[in-house]
Structures are given as C-alpha cells and as structure tokens.
Amino acid sequence: MANQLIEDKLKLLPDQPGCYIMKNARDQVIYIGKAKNLKNRVRSYFKSSHTGKTAQLVSEIADYDYIVTKTDKESLLLEINLIQKHQPHYNIKLKHGTMYPYLKITNEEDPQLIITSEVKNDGGYYFGPYPNVYAATGTRDLLQKTYPLRKCSKNEKRACFYYHIGQCIGCCDHHVSKEEYDDQIKRIRRFLNGDVKTIKNDLENKMAQAAEDMHYERAAEYRDQISYIEQTVEPQNIMSKQYNNRDVFAFYMDKGWISIQVFMLRQFSIIKRDSALFPCYDDPEEELTSYIIQFYQHQNHTLPKEILVPKKVDNTLISDTLDVAVATPQRGDKHKMLKMAYNNAKVAHQEKFRLLEMQEEKTVGAVETLSQVLNLPYLKVIESFDHSNIQGTNPVSAMVVYEDGKPNKKLYRKYNIKSVKGANEYLTTQEVIRRRYGRLLREGKALPDLILMDGGAIEVNAAKEVLVDELNLSIPVAGMVKDDKHRTANLIFGEDLAIVPLEPTSPAFHLLQRIQDEVHRFAISFHRQVRSKHSFSSRLDAIPGVGPKTRTKVMRHFKTLKAIRQGGVPEIQKLGIPEKVALAIHKTAWEGQTDDPYAAETRDDQTENGKEDKSL
C-alpha cells in the first residue's frame, strides 16, 4: 500500500509524457521507466494488483520523482540515459547497454544508413532511440527505397542487385559525388526530423488504391510503413552536439516562490537534473542569476562549455563571473531544451503548492470541519487517551496531542497506572484524567479544546465525571468507537453520546483515524517498554548476589537484556560487580530470550518525545 506522500502526489501527476524515477526509503533510485501518460502509468503501480518482481518493486517504493518531456520519444531517450547513469536494481535489461535501436548515417566516404544500438562520438548522424527494432528496420527500408544511399559493401566490382531495384545510390557502379550524397543525406535528415508529410501522403494514397484494387497484402505493407513512421519519426529529435556539454537553467515564479530546474547535458543526453524551490524576495531573474553562481562556486559542479538561460537574465554578468559562454536561444534544439526545463519548473512548483493545499485540507481544514460538526469553536488543541494492558498486568495509559491537526510529540505523555489493579477501563480513565488535568490546573497551564477517548461510552462518561464533578472543568469529551476489525467506525459526542455524522471519506474522519491509530500505537509501545523493564528487573532479582543496589546499577547502565548480552561479562564487571555475579547476570540475560517477544522491542519509544507523567 502506498504511503501518504505517494497517495497525495498521485493526485497531482500530469497527463503528459515523461520519465518516472522510483526511490526506496534510503532515497536510492531502484527503478526508472518512461510513460506516454505519467498519470496513468505511475498510478498503475499503486492502484493495481501485482505479482512477482513487480510486487517486490512496489513494496520497496517510498517516493518517486518524474521529469516531464514534450514527446514519448524524448522520454524514451531520457529513460535510457538515466538508467545508464543510476544503474537501478530493477532495470535489469538496460543496465549494461540499451536495448533500443538507433538509425545512423555513417561518417565515411560513401555513407550508409544503418541500425545500431551503440552511440559514439564519431561524427555520424544518430536518430533515435526507437521503440523496437522492427519499427527502426521498417523506417530504414522505407528510406532506402525513397532516398537510397550505399547499401552494398565497398568490395562490389559491378552494380549490385539493390542498385537495379532502386535501393542503392550506385557507388558500386559509378562515382557518386559528395554533393549528390549531401543532398540525399539532407532529405533523410529532414525526414527523420519530422518532415514526413510528402512520403506519408504518398503511402496513404497507395494504401487506399491497393485496398480498392483488393490487393490487401500490399495495402497492409503500406499500412505497416505508415505505422513505422508514426512510431519512429513523428516527432523525433536528432541526437546532435546541441546536447553535449551544456547546462540548462529555467525558472517558474508564482505565489512569491521560485521553482528552478537545471538540466545537465553531457554526451548527447541529459545525465542529471537538479531542482530548487524557495521563497523569492527579489526579481526572479536576479534570484536565478544568484542561484547559478552559487551552483558552480559553492556546490562544486563542473563548468560546462555553455550555459543556457531564459530571457531577461544578465548573461554578461554570469559569463564574466564564471568565465563561460552564456546564451539565450530563441529557436532550435537549444530552445526546446530550455522550454522543457521551464515546463518541469512549472510542474514542480504547482505540485508543491497543491501538496501544501492538500496538507492544509487534511489538517487545519479537517479540524475546521470537525469543529463545525461538533458545534464547537475551532479545536486548535486536541488531546487523546488510550489504555493498554495484557490480562490486567502492567496497566498503562498514553496521551497524544494534536495542534492544528498535526501531532506535537513534545507534548505526548505516558502514565503508569497506580491506583487500579487489573483491567478496569472506567477507573483507569478516571485516574489518568484526574492526574492530567489536575496538574494543568495546579500549574496554571492551558487546557485543550477537545478530549478524545479511544473507546466508547464507558471511557467518555468516566472522563466527564472527573472533569465536571471533581475538577469543575467543561472541556468537551468525545469517544472514538472502533468496529469489530479494530478500525475507526464512529465518533460519539454530546449528552446522549449520539453518533456524529461524518462521511468516512472526509478529511475530518481521516483525521480521527490518524489520531486513534497514533494514540493506540503510542500506548502499545509504552506498554511493551514497561513489560520488558519489569521482566528485566524480575530476572535480576532472581540472581543470588544481586541486591537492590546492584540491580539498579545494572538497569541504569544497560537498560535492556539485549544490551547485557551484547556488552558481555567485562562490561558488567566495570560496574564494580564481582566476576561470579557478572557471569550469572550475563547467563541469565541469555536464558529463554525467545520466550519474551518484547525483550528486543524496548527502544520504540526512545525515539518519542513523550515523557512519563508521574503526577498523583
């Protein structure tokens, strides 16, 4: 199941092509993919059932990022290069070389049009990558018929077969000038860059005519050729030197915040993307200029051959400061990259503020709704209680505090129950309420706006009795009732403890669920800690030679039986304990360790800020 951050981000995915980057809990890239529609593709990972490797992948995803592109072809190219850079664990096929083909016009005397899977800086013209080898082969065959180059080897002594059928330029039969080759190469490049209208119209006419003449196989061939063009050429960007050794900066400004995107282009592709989002107190162009200077001077990034920036940025200032060429392209491939960076800056900005709005809706908005439903003033501070015991042993209670719909762990409190023996929810509630709010009254501290009891009428009535009859307080109390599956079912409130009408899909109901889950978790973890401590203490008491002072000394130093096992006998002796007694303590720490399932779980609450309330 997706975490809350992912659930929120899924709602904001754009209906655009791009690459998505899946990360695990350690922020490591574990999978990279491309999509014609980011919203549909990324959502499918978390909204569909999976098996095998895909299920394993989804279980490890803690967050994701994405880069928006203009076309599916651009996302394909970006995917390949990101995989080569990050080597994600789940991208097995593309780790050690691309599986996608390219069309290449070779840089040699009598050039050829070939299919390759390796891109080199050899002066050739590379087009691609293409979705599959069949589409690339179909496009190459079509071009060889329409704009033929050399198809045969250079060792032919006479005109080859392909020359006679019009698929070879004929350098095997006669000398072909460089000018004739250049003209043919220009036509091929124009076609592969998207100027396909003439050829496509001709194929469509031939397909219609073949179908009319009932030559269906030939019509199917024309149909496939049109399909290859649509898959590989419309639109397709050439991999050129425009993508080599340049950094592209763009920004989007709104609501007083600036979003900056950086694309680092090396070896004909995007190898890295950086981003930033922060409040803007100056002109956005000035902020971007300052960011660029710091990007290279303070973050140790290598300077590229050229930096591309938007209009109105002081190119001269950046160039003089960094001693590198700075340009603002108005058209062509460089301008396309600048536009792509701008689009990603805009998407990142909009996503950030939509996430903030959604968070506001889940917290402050949910509190406002809950306040209205209960007919109470704004419930800024909500305190919630839950009790925990196992068959009446080691009873404890815990309290969590939510301010403006968010947990404030500094104010969490833990209670060891002192006056109640066994499992008695009514008396336990009364003791905790009496201790908590009696103390706040004595210390003159602020009271909460609402008390939520994890339970039904018993707990609510017990709390009300102490508040009204003993403490003379009028704090409203509501009960969070669970169903038979231990999930939040209803909220009860008022003199008659009626069910409060809340839609299960509403932010207010979800807030109650979060509070109830949190207070239950906190109470259970505290109970495990207490149980473990008592088990620790009782074991030490059973060892000959261990009295109250020695027991206290050991417990303060080691805290847990696990720590004793790890520390060993020498560590115990350092406390001034004789070797024989130290050996007995160490041995006891190992005895029956698997019988106590909570012995290794005592550190859960050491990360919490909640303090134990020892008030009477």
UniProtKB/TrEMBL annotation:
Domain GIY-YIG: 15-92
Region feature Disordered, mapped onto this chain: 592-616
GO molecular function terms attached to this record: DNA binding; excinuclease ABC activity
The keyword Ligase appears for this protein: no
Domain UvrC family homology region profile: 248-467
Alphabetized SMART domains for the sequence: GIYc
Coiled-coil boundaries: none
Domain UVR intervals: 197-232
Tree of life domain: Bacteria
Keyword DNA repair carried by entry: yes
Family: Belongs to the UvrC family.
Protein's recorded name: UvrABC system protein C
Species whose genome carries this gene: Aerococcus kribbianus
Gene name tied to this protein: uvrC
